[in-house]
Specification:
Order of helices and strands: EEEEHHEEEEHE
Oligomer: single chain
Shape: rod-shaped
Largest sheet: 5 strands, antiparallel
Strand order of the largest sheet: 8-7-6-5-9
Strand content: 35-45%
Distance between the termini: 39 Å
Helix content: 10-25%
Number of helices: 3
Length: 202
């Protein structure tokens, strides 16, 4: 279940002096508070959705929203109102941006490593590959290398989500039957994206 909604935080308090209250008609002062409203997910602010200005007459204690007051008070308030939007109200977006940046950097680093792995395969390398069944994926593991001959065993299981392929990458899932391929063929399959990921324990 996703918890989301709107909330607000107090941005500024102040006082307007020498104003006439439209409720009690007294020449008085008004205390005001500026609230910043924001949308949140799991109580983390994601983005701001405006501000609300609340004023209270110090004589009759009636509270008003700014839009309910005469233009003369609005003009006076305009000179004192809070400017800008607090960074806190963007904190959720900042977190999302950092997460995206981290995964983008991590993926770029992994692809650089893969470019080296495919040039020089090693025993134990795990290749994620497209299965012969459309829309399915599986893995194969290098077990032996002799000059240009590369010996691999295939996973007995397939999965229909590339992102979940690690769920079937278990030692007991690999067949005992060995297949032989070449470095040139592996590099061709990688270029054609038939091999779409390489993992190596280092």
């Amino acid at each position: 279940m996703i918890f989301y909604g709107t909330n607000s935080s107090r941005l500024k308090n102040g006082q307007l002096r020498g104003v006439e209250c439209p409720n009690c008609n007294e020449q008085t002062s008004m205390n005001y508070s500026v609230f910043g409203k924001y949308f949140y997910v799991y109580w983390i602010p994601i983005f701001p959705i405006g501000k609300e200005n609340i004023l209270e007459c110090n004589s009759c204690k009636r509270t008003f929203k700014l839009k309910e007051l005469p233009q003369k008070i609005k003009d006076k308030f305009e000179l004192e109102k809070h400017k800008g939007i607090p960074f806190l109200h963007f904190s959720g977006l900042a977190i999302i941006a950092l997460v995206i940046g981290y995964f983008s950097y991590s993926n770029a680093q992994h692809k650089e490593a893969e470019a080296e792995y495919i040039k020089a395969p090693a025993i134990g390398d795990i290749y994620s590959i497209k299965s012969e069944s459309p829309g399915h994926f599986t893995t194969m593991k290098i077990t032996k290398i002799e000059e240009d001959s590369i010996y691999v065993v295939f996973n007995n299981y397939e999965i229909d989500k590339r992102s979940a392929i690690d769920q079937i990458d278990k030692s007991e899932n690999y067949t005992f039957l060995t297949d032989v391929t070449t470095l040139e063929n592996l590099q061709f399959l990688y270029e054609e994206k038939e091999i779409f990921n390489i993992e190596r324990d280092e």
